[in-house]
């Protein structure tokens, strides 16, 4: 199984179960920034219907084995289900539940379809601005590198910086944003 | 603590400059690609990375057993994920479940 196969399986399952979704993580970062390898397919899923997550996990059972325990994100206060592919290589699918966080809600509402040539279909992904805000909010070294790369590739002139600054101000990540902007290469 | 020698500082400065040059090259290349090309490269890099991880794990184990190599790759990735997620993700008590939309 390739990362594309896994992304395709997840998208197919979400569509089959009528679960609104959005691909995040390295797939979204790679779309807007500098491509890098990944072992994870990260997806935000809108599972307001309490039967939706179990149906989704059951739909993916032939592809991945999911941890029984739901995990809680202590930073953003969301929930996460983690599955490991049954085949090789050992890839991970992380299903993040959409929840009542103003940024997460807006990011999800603003998602857009992008064609994934290696999957052969369009999939919903966040806007580049939302990827940057999310990465700065998570704030791990790898996340900050991803935010920097998306900013460098998309350029500040090509992004809605007022939108990014607005959320960074609310998240307390303005200093991290400014530190990245200070090291960006010239545009053009 | 030893004071940093001027030679070491020069080496560090040289290394920083080299790292930035590599990063700038990477960014210039990504800027020249279409979003679809970047997306496709994530897939290609991932396939290559797993092949290398598998080969390295088998070499480290001194085995020709491919399954043992994949088991070692899985173990290493699990360790990395555990370190990455430490303190961030915890088992969710049912009463603390976030309100879904």
Task: Please provide a written account of the structure.
- The complex is a heterodimer of chains A (188) and B (101).
- Chain A is an alpha+beta fold.
- Chain A is built from 8 helices and 8 strands, in the order αβαβαββββαββαααα.
- In chain A, the strands form 2 sheets. In chain A, strands 1, 2, 3, 4, 5 and 6 form a 6-stranded mixed β-sheet that branches. In chain A, strands 7-8 form a two-stranded antiparallel ribbon.
- In chain A, α2 packs parallel to α6 (141-154), α5 (128-138) runs parallel beside α7 (161-171) and α6 (141-154) crosses α8 (174-181).
- The mean pLDDT of chain A is 93.
- Chain B is mostly helical and 101 residues long.
- In chain B, α2 packs across α3 (66-85).
- Classes of the chains: A alpha+beta (188), B mainly alpha (101).
- The interface between A and B is large, with 51 and 43 residues.
- β4 (71-73) of chain A pairs antiparallel with β1 (89-91) of chain B, so a sheet runs across the interface.
Tell me what portion of residues of chain B adopts beta-strand conformation: under 5%
Percent of residues in β-strands of chain A: 15-25%
Shape of chain B: extended
Give a count of the beta strands of chain B, DSSP E runs of length 2 or more. 1
User: What Rg of chain B is obtained from the alpha carbons, in whole angstroms?
Assistant: 21 Å
SSE pattern of chain A, N- to C-terminal: HEHEHEEEEHEEHHHH
**Alpha-carbon distance between the termini of chain B?**
54 Å
Count of alpha and pi helical runs of chain B = 3
Element order, helices and strands of chain B?
HHHE
Given as residue ranges, the uncertain stretches of chain A (5+ residues, pLDDT < 50) are: none
Largest sheet of chain B: none
């Amino acid at each position: 199984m390739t990362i594309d196969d896994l992304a395709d399986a997840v998208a197919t399952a979400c569509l089959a179960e009528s679960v609104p979704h959005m691909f995040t993580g390295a797939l979204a970062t790679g779309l807007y920034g500098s491509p890098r390898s990944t072992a994870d397919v990260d997806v935000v899923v809108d599972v307001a219907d309490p039967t939706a997550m179990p149906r989704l996990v059951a739909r993916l059972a032939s592809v991945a084995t999911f941890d029984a325990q739901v995990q809680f994100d202590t930073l953003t206060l969301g929930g996460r289900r983690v599955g490991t592919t049954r085949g090789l290589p050992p890839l991970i699918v992380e299903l993040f539940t959409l929840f009542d966080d103003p940024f997460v809600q807006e990011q999800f509402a603003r998602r857009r379809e992008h064609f994934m040539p290696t999957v052969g279909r369009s999939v919903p992904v966040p806007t580049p601005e939302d990827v940057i805000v999310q990465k700065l909010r998570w704030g791990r070294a790898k996340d900050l590198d991803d935010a920097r790369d998306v900013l460098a590739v998309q350029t500040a002139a090509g992004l809605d910086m007022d939108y990014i600054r607005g959320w960074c101000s609310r998240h307390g990540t303005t200093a991290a944003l400014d530190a990245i902007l200070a090291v960006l290469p010239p545009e053009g | 603590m030893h004071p940093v020698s001027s030679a070491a500082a020069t080496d560090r400065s040289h290394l920083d400059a080299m790292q930035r040059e590599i990063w700038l090259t990477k960014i210039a290349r990504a800027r020249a690609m279409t979003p679809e090309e970047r997306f496709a490269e994530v897939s290609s890099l991932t396939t290559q990375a797993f092949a290398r991880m598998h080969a390295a794990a088998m070499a480290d184990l001194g085995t020709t057993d491919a399954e043992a190599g994949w088991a070692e790759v899985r173990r290493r990735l699990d360790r990395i994920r555990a370190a990455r997620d430490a303190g961030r993700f915890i088992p969710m008590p049912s009463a603390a479940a976030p309100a879904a939309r």
